[in-house]
Amino acid sequence: HSGVSLNLYPRHVNNCGFRDDANLILKGELQFSNPHPWPVSLFELGCMGHVGWIPNLECTHGVLSFDHVLHGSITFTNFNEDATNSSQPLANTTVSMDEGRGYTEKDFGRSFPSLWIWIQTNSFRNNPGTSLFVSLARISTPIFGLEFPGFTAAVWHDKELIPFATWSGAKFENLSISSEKVFMAMRSSKNRRYFEYRVELTVSRDAPEVLLYAPVNFTKMEPFVHEALLARVHMRLFNGHGDIIFDDIGVNTGLEVHGDVEW
């Protein structure tokens, strides 16, 4: 079992001079069981493939677990200056996370890309345990300032990893973005390790967004990432013969669309 211990509370003014607008204290202990990471090898750095081994990349991504089972609880405490200065006890709400499902990823580097799309859910209505991850970005390299569009994505379904990535030979067949939705279609490359698949994703953009902090040139964290946490994605997965093998709606979908992503 792995896990995480939480003890998060608002700060009046952070190191960048921004005032937190949070009004909750979060405390808890969570344990993760039966994780399913994207494998890392000498030749492939997980979801980044061989590209991930290029030194001094602006940003490197990793999927630590497509899906795992949660155990534990989180306590939410309403927080405000008036409440903390009064004799009234703070209101606590404890939520059990037992038998919930989790997903874990990481980023490391000096800055986020100048543009990207990110999609993730493992909350498919009829297929618990199935997970979707998509990351499309303009990749900046230390090689003469070279930039190129690239993507890495995968479906974890029936204990099988189905990658859709530039480095694996996958191709984009369609990408369209509007204020209402994001639609994309990708086809994987058949090789000695993987079968051929095609995936279609339609993601709604009507969910509310939260503002997240992100690194800027190793020097500071600034709030500029707008992320939806309650988007919906309709995913259809086809085998190499064109037969539909998966057709479901993923709820509680994470969605970020940043910059001129049709570049």
Briefly say what this structure is.
It contains one helix and 15 strands. The chain has 263 residues and is mainly β. The protein is globular, with a radius of gyration of 20 Å.
Structure overview:
By secondary structure, the protein is mainly beta. 2% of the residues lie in helices and 57% in strands. Strands 6, 7, 8, 9, 10, 11, 12, 13, 14 and 15 form a 10-stranded antiparallel beta sheet that branches. A hairpin with a 2-residue loop joins strand 8 and strand 9. It is globular.
The number of distinct β-strands equals 15
Q: What is the N-to-C order of secondary-structure elements (H for helix, E for strand)?
A: EEEHEEEEEEEEEEEE
The helical percent reads under 10%
Q: Treating each run of at least 4 consecutive H or I residues as one helix, how many helices?
A: 1
Structural class label: mainly beta
- Rg for CA atoms: 20 Å
User: Rough shape?
Assistant: globular
**What is the percentage of strand-forming residues?**
over 45%
* Mean pLDDT metric: 86
What's the assembly state of these chains?
Answer: single chain
Low-confidence stretches: none
Question: Main β-sheet, in a few words?
Answer: 10 strands, antiparallel
The rounded distance between the terminal residues' Cα atoms is 42 Å
Helix-strand blueprint:
Elements: E1 2-8, E2 24-33, E3 59-78, H1 81-84, E4 92-96, E5 101-109, E6 116-121, E7 131-140, E8 147-157, E9 160-165, E10 171-177, E11 181-187, E12 197-204, E13 209-216, E14 220-239, E15 244-258
Antiparallel strand pairs: 1-2, 2-3, 3-4, 3-5, 6-7, 6-15, 7-8, 8-9, 10-11, 11-12, 12-14, 13-14, 14-15
